[in-house]
Amino acid sequence: MTMSEGEQQSEAWTIRRVITWATGDLKKRGASSARLDAELLLGKVLGIDRVGLLIDAERPLDRAELAAYRELHQRRRAGEPVAYLLGVREFYGRPFRVDPRVLIPRPDTEILVEVALARTRHLALSARVLDLCTGSGCVAISLACERPTSRVLGVDISDGALAVARENALRLGAVNAGFLRSDLFAGVPSGLRYDLITANPPYIPDEDVAALQIDIRGYEPHLALAGGPDGLVFTRRIVAGAPALLAAGGVLAMEVEAGKAGAVAELFTAAGFGGVSRHLDYGGHERVVSGVLP
C-alpha cells in the first residue's frame, strides 16, 4: 500500500478505497478469494464484521489502522494463510483457534464429522470415541459438543498441536474431550474398546507436497500433510490397527485423498470391516471411507 504525499492529502484511505486497492493487489498475485481476504483482514484490524465494513465504507482509516492493515496485507501477499492471520477458522459452526502448529480445518472435513455422527446415531448417549491425528481438535471437539454424553479422546504426535486442541476444547466447552500425545495407537491406553475411531491422517504423497499452493506448503505443518511415497502410509497403519481397539459393531471413519477412496475401501475390506461406504465431499469427490467391525 503506497501513495504519494499529494495523494495522502487529496484523497483519504477510506474502508472502501483500501478494500478496492487490496483486492486488486491480491488478484495480481493469483489470490482466488482476493476481496474476501481483504475484507476479513481489514475487519480484524478495525474490530468489525463484513457488514460493518459495508456500512462504514466511507470512513477514513487513521495512521495506526493503516499501518496495522499494511502489515497483515503484506503477510497475506507473501502467501501466509488468512486463517493464521486471523487466528481462527470456523468448523462445523464453531470458531477454532489455529496457528502454524496445526493444519487449518477444511470444510470437506466436516463430512468426516457427519459420517461419524450418522453411523453411530444408535450410540448417541454412550459412545466412546478415539480421534487420531487430532490437530486443532476440530473433529474430536465437534463430536464431543454434538454428543455431550460421549467420551472423546483426541491423540496427536505433535505437542504443539495438542496445546492448540486443549485450548480449543476449553474455549468451546468440550468438557467430555481429552487429549493425549501418541503416535497413532502406540500411546493409547490398552484395555479400552472404542465405539468410534475417526482419523484425518497425513495423506499427500511426499513428492506432491512441493507442488501444493504456497499458502499450504510454505506455512502449514508438513507433519500433517506428507503421507509417505503413495500417501497411504498412515492410512494403512490406522486401518490395520483399528480392529484391536474397536468394540464389536464399532465404526472406523477416515478422511482420504481425492481419488484414493477405492484403494482405502479395499484396505477396510481386507482388515475385516463390513458395510464399507465411500462418502462425497462438497465438491463431489469421495473424501471419507467408513466401515463397521462385525
TrEMBL record:
One of its GO terms (molecular function) is peptide chain release factor N(5)-glutamine methyltransferase activity. One of its GO terms (biological process) is methylation. The keyword Protein biosynthesis does not apply. It comes from the Bacteria. Substrate binds at N200, P201, P202, Y203. Methylates the class 1 translation termination release factors RF1/PrfA and RF2/PrfB on the glutamine residue of the universally conserved GGQ motif. This is Release factor glutamine methyltransferase. The lineage of its organism: Bacteria, Pseudomonadati, Myxococcota, Polyangia, Polyangiales.
